[in-house]
Hints:
By secondary structure, the chain is of the alpha/beta class.
Amino acid sequence: MRFLAGFWRLLVGIKDALVLIFMLLFFGALHAALTYNPNRPVGSGALLLDLNGTIVEQPAERGPFDSLTAGGAAVVREHRLRDVVRALDAARTDGDIKAVVLDLDRFLGGGEVALETVGDAIDRVKKAGKPVFAYATGYTDDSYLLAAHASEVWMSPMGGAAFAGPGGSRLYYKGLLDKLGVNAHVYRVGAFKSAVEPYIRKDQSPEARRANEALAAALWEGWQANVARARPKAKLAEAVANPAGNGNLSQAALGYGLVDKLGERAAFADRVAQVAGKDDKSGSFKTVRLEDWVAANPLRYDGGDIGIVTVAGTIEDGFSGPGSAGGDTIARAIRKAVAEGDVKALVVRIDSPGGSALASERIRSALLEAKAKGLPIVVSMGSVAASGGYWVATAGDRIFAEPTTITGSIGVFGVLPTFEESLAKIGITTDGVKTTPLSGQPDLFGGTTEAFDRLAQTGVEDIYGRFVALVAQSRNLPPARVNEIGQGRVWDGGSARQLGLVDAFGGLSDAVAEAARRAKIDNPELVYLEKQPSWWEQWASDWSRPDDDGEQDGTDMLSRLGAKQRALAWAAIADARTLATDASIQARCLECGAVLPARTPDASLGRWLLTLLAR
């Protein structure tokens, strides 16, 4: 009886705790709904771009329990690229905006094309006669690519600047799989489709090394050229060769011309206040926050005559929310817009390393249906438009990219793990009956048969043949030539243009202008064919931002470098789990993940890794 009484008290305690949590969530949501005001006044002063997080093409959808399900990891804030650019362009002519402030203390980066796009917008602000101020405790590659465009670059006296450039290590799982007794059955086409190499090798192949070195060199050259144009007085070669200088990191950055001033935040705020005015309430400078400006100037999600189709993140089968490209989600949005009849042209903005070949084809088919009804299709490539992303791009009448866009990766693969050797180590075997060579296949516990392996490889080769044919037809190239430049190889945008994979250099605005020209639209109105952010997401973004005084702890140079590598490690683990648990045929560029911004790690990734290691 004593045990039962204790057990009952435990159940009552759990019930009371759940009720308390529910009440807290209920009243928190009620407070959010009552206090959220999307039309709050914007004010005047300096446009503050507090880029605490990453810049992405399309932020992932945020839910009310994201902070709880992140497994203790910080939820990475994601700033929409087009919102940042829109706010900067508006600041040029807005009389209430006196200056622009880039707070880069906790900036975690973005794709190179995205950062170059923001840099160009910053240059337009300066050209309009308004100063741009940048501040950070320390600078690394991504943050400095933005800071270099500022009128004044400030840094903490305790900080430093170090530029690592593209490149780094990649995880290879062959040795671990051998120890676990896992057989990784790889079906692929393409000498350069290095996505599967971690499962069949302990290092990269010569072909993969050659392609990776060429790509890294092109990206590094683009980064250096952009910084040199934005800040000619910076002695980049010396800073890269000896970032420590004579032992004082901040003085070294100042001596190399990387920064203009060394000072704490208070001194920086005083300098900005000289231009933007002082806020008597906070004691800092007057600010117009990016979030407030975006809320007061929302994008259009209905009406309009040029539809913007965003393909961002991994291309997945079925339906998915923003931040990943659900094949059915995007195809349905395209068909709905075309059926309503308001849209006269489509611009497809791609920032994706690819994913499911089937989902990529669903999106392409929907675009072809629109084209068959007379709508021009223009493609704009972001930082990455590779593999399945390029599959989608083949539907375009014209393709725009930037020199540092990562594209190509025309190749297909599939990975299927089986565990017959793992089970044998603990005395478990399999047996059964078959009526055909494919009975029970793929058998994850007993292994695959030769007939199944032949079928799977034939399927991969068939889809690769379709991929080559699509590219050959859309780019007016001989199939043999497409096969030669395909083979899974990744290309930078400059090389892709020379090879005929893209038509011209340019960004989203160039693609919109081309679509308007083809559709004979004089003053195009854009409409985004995607889910509009909910009030909860907008409120959550406001709630998670720093206080109005702008004060927050900075991160030094070493912390920044370490954070980027941790993000790459989590991304590699996520890719490994995806391939180990998803047997679909993939048109995906895994190596492209190294240049994409960090995202909040899924809490289940850690548990999956620990389980794998325990086994």
